[in-house]
Amino acid sequence: xxxxxxxxxxxxxxxxxxxxxxxxxxxxxxxxxxxxxxxxxxxxxxxxxxxxxxxxxxxxxxxxxxxxxxxxxxxxxxxxxxxxxxxxxxxxxxxxxxxxxxxxxxxxxxxxxxxxxxxxxxxxxxxxxxxxxxxxxxxxxxxxxxxxxxxxxxxxxxxxxxxxxxxxxxxxxxxxxxxxxxxxxxxxxxxxxxxxxxxxxxxxxxxxxxxxxxxxxxxxxxxxxxxxxxxxxxxxxxxxxxxxxxxxxxxxxxxxxxxxxxxxxxxxxxxxxxxxxxxxxxxxxxxxxxxxxxxxxxxxxxxxxxxxxxxxxxxxxxxxxxxxxxxxxxxxxxxxxxxxxxxxxxxxxxxxxxxxxxxxxxxxxxxxxxxxxxxxxxxxxxxxxxxxxxxxxxxxxxxxxxxxxxxxxxxxxxxxxxxxxxxxxxxxxxxxxxxxxxxxxxxxxxxxxxxxxxxxxxxxxxxxxxxxxxxxxxxxxxxxxxxxxxxxxxxxxxxxxxxxxxxxxxxxx
Length: 509
Prior knowledge:
It is a single chain. Helix 1 (about 25-35) runs antiparallel to helix 4 (about 70-90), helix 4 (about 70-90) packs across helix 15 (about 380-400) and helix 6 (about 140-150) packs antiparallel against helix 7. The two termini are about 35 Å apart. The protein is built from 20 helices and 17 strands. The chain has helices at about 25-35, 40-45, 50-70, 70-90, 100-105, 140-150, 155-170, 190-195, 210-220, 240-245, 255-265, 280-300, 320-330, 335-345, 380-400, 415-420, 420-430, 440-455, 475, 490-500, and strands spanning about 1-5, 10, 20, 90-95, 95-100, 110-120, 130, 135, 180-185, 200-205, 225-230, 270-275, 305-310, 315-320, 360, 370-375, 405-410. It is of the alpha/beta class. It has a 7-stranded mixed β-sheet, sandwiched between helices. Strands 2-4-5 form a 3-stranded antiparallel β-sheet. A 3-stranded antiparallel β-sheet has the order 14-16-15.
């Protein structure tokens, strides 16, 4: 795929001599560098690949398998991939391309100042509860639902236990001592609504759009937190909700250097969550922008912590028991079901009902791991690259001594997902295969609490003082995948069937 010309501003894919940009060639070069870092022959195979948009899941799974072989492999792959990305992408300003390093080190003189909005809600921290299918769960009812999700394989035991710890430690929810940065603050499944109930200081970065800031301002005004917003420095200094609605905002793609300069002006250590999502190739660019920002902040302040919400539709390293559970479910299918599935698989040329199986990998650390491939081809290789960059940054930052929270968030019926008719239908039919789709309000309640756990619990894997046997164990824990990891089939191989079921249903829940 090619896109754009060299005249665009901000962070861009590298340009070819004729001014075009190839997203496919760039992604392949990043993954080639990752394979090369561990001396894998797969880089040559990848370089010659002619069907990248169809075959990229094969290479991502292979890369995860090779990363599992040794802890050193995982870090080498991640560092090489990040370095290749950093070298490849350009920052265009005034019609000229700059390297990311040059651009991030030279923000424009006109940047941002801070506008502040204090919440008017009750000063006490709001207790944690979870909206779920028309109910509000708290206390014993919430604990029973966590148990049910865990038994059903919707969330991993480590995810459920972390949430139980949050409920048992309500003092953790008072975030008045922390400054949390949300890159993509208006993310539909993001934690902003709950942070505004837990006395947090939130530096919110999102586009200068009144509709976006109306929602953020309304949530902040009725809460008990403090909203810190970037406002262009040339705009006369004012405060108040109306000022923020009309004047606040910053563009991650075109103003990343100025955003870093603004965030550096805030006092104390920062907890930075990379949440922004854009469609298509812009998702990679905004991910590169967020990565450039967290890299600059981490270099400036060692106490900076990072946070990510990993997508369930990716390739993951998983504990051995997860792989064996998926294989066991495949083997336990009813006899009649097996026959029908075999017929459909044959008719589809092997595309349907692929077993969710992987080889068990004996790591050099003495542990055994597997992998799960939950990639959805409709989301495309750009989406896969963007999420892989976040995984790579998470494990390298933690290895360098930073606190890093990265947890798999469940598939959520956000607007960005359900506007795709096939995915929307697949979501509606997902329960036919034992996969649960979550409402945005449920997801942001669960994931906000999980971030609190990772910030407060000294025994959380986010804490770099807690030993990991393998860097990828950071992402194996705390997952709420909706059931995809333990599904007997590769998720994309039953998506068309789920969509067929979904076309007859109005509701996903």
